[in-house]
Amino acid sequence: MNKKLDHIGVAVRQIEESIDFYKNVLGAKMIDHYRSEAKGVESEIAIMDIDGDRTELLCPTNNSTSPIARFIKQKGKGVHHIAYQVDDLEEALQALKEKGIRVMEDTRRTNKHGRRLIYLNPADTEGTIIEYCDYPNEK
After folding, report:
1. Which domains does the chain have, with CATH numbers?
2. 55: closest CA among 88, 25, 100, 93?
3. pTM of the model
4. CB-CB neighbours of 105 under 10 Å
5. Residue limits of the VOC domain (predicted)?
6. Which of these, 38, 78, 75, lies nearest to 58 by C-alpha position?
7. CA–CA separation, 30 vs 74, rounded Å?
8. 83 to each of 4, 112, 131, how far by Cα in Å?
9. Fewest beta carbons within 10 Å, which of 14, 57, 100, 128?
């Protein structure tokens, strides 16, 4: 199963300041900027592109239920997760299961860009939050 880095998710407190930094200091181009109130997301998201490499800026919109708010409270702002694009999400999940790696089923969803995603259980990844994703509409 092929895997490649899809994006890095960064937890931020002030999204506009972070967007300005990425644009004016790093030379990023904003691909999208939207708000998701879906359960388990509850974040404002800015997708930034630097020469083909993407970073998702994640700012909590609900400080009591957003997983990003919990992350910032526990660990502070910074890298939240690393996302790997796989050829087929269902095949990749089967391969993980065969290796005894658990996923967090409640994180499974399809985002507004058609990306199917799920997070691996950090207890099985040495504490790193890892997202597996695919883009079935691009096949």
Report:
1. 3-138 (3.10.180.10)
2. 25
3. 0.92
4. 10
5. 4-135
6. 78
7. 28
8. 9, 16, 4
9. 100
pLDDT of residue 65: 87
Q: What is the mean pLDDT of each run of 10 residues along the chain (139 residues)?
A: 95 97 98 88 95 97 91 95 97 97 94 94 96 90
Query: How far is the C-alpha of 136 from the C-alpha of 46, rounded, in Å?
Result: 22
* Residue given tokens 């399809």 in the structure block: 110
Half-sphere exposure of 47 (CA within 13 A, CB side): 13
CB 84 within 8 A of CB 131: yes
Q: The tokens of 26 are what?
A: 């790093």
What pLDDT is recorded for position 85?
97
Whole-number pLDDT of residue 51: 96
Tell me, what's the pLDDT at 63?
86
SS3 of residue 25 by DSSP: coil
